[in-house]
């Protein structure tokens, strides 16, 4: 198995040593992992520190020698909120020798009818009206469409991120028809640009995948083939979280393989 979305101490929301992540990955039977630490304005409000990315890359080079024949460690990054400061992406990519770039959107979504906490996870969506939730989701996907069109990425990560908190955590249902057009537009952009869609398994324990079965089937029906698996682990114990279940879901949705990236090119991880 290959996990293409893992965070380490080089992200502000993780303290894990990459060496410890590698040991856990080997123990769990993984063959390759990608370290994809955060690059975004909110994590680097005083300016992007490319030194952290370079240090991460160099550490991965050393660990690939240490674990040669046991585990492949790939150097990547998760570039978020591209629309807010595109220069961060340019700076991050300048470090070179990158295996995979994830693009995502987490925070800083606005609606007209009430003041939101900047971080989506800090909002209690049980207190929102249906109209407010619809407006929030529409605004989220308006930004994500721009990111999908213009960001320099390989994999679009956790496509249905707002539902992690609205539906999975706060149990507020969202009718797929509400976001169907936006989702189709994004999937079409991904396919046209030959980018990959991520199946994010970070909430697999509660049976929640990003995106869900309906969207995965839609992507496949539209001709989408490039699909990527990532547990979005911030602690090494979750290095394999949901990957087996994710593989079964992909197979159910008509996929025959999933991919990882090396030197920013897709490589078959496993046949399903």
Report on the structure:
The chain has a seven-stranded parallel sheet with strand order 1-2-3-4-5-6-7. Strands 8-9 form a two-stranded antiparallel sheet. The chain has a single domain, classed as TIM Barrel (Alpha-Beta Barrel), CATH 3.20.20. Helix content is 36%, strand content 19%. With 272 residues, it is an alpha/beta fold. It is globular, with a radius of gyration of 18 Å. The model has no long low-confidence stretch (mean pLDDT 95). A hairpin with a 2-residue loop joins strand 8 and strand 9. It contains eight helices and nine strands.
In short:
This protein is α/β, with parallel strands linked by helices. The protein has helices spanning 18-27, 50-66, 86-93, 130-150, 161-169, 180-192, 213-221, 243-252; strands spanning 2-6, 32-39, 72-80, 100-104, 155-156, 196-200, 227-230, 257-262, 265-271. The strands form two sheets. A seven-stranded parallel sheet has the order 1-2-3-4-5-6-7. It has a two-stranded antiparallel sheet with strand order 8-9.
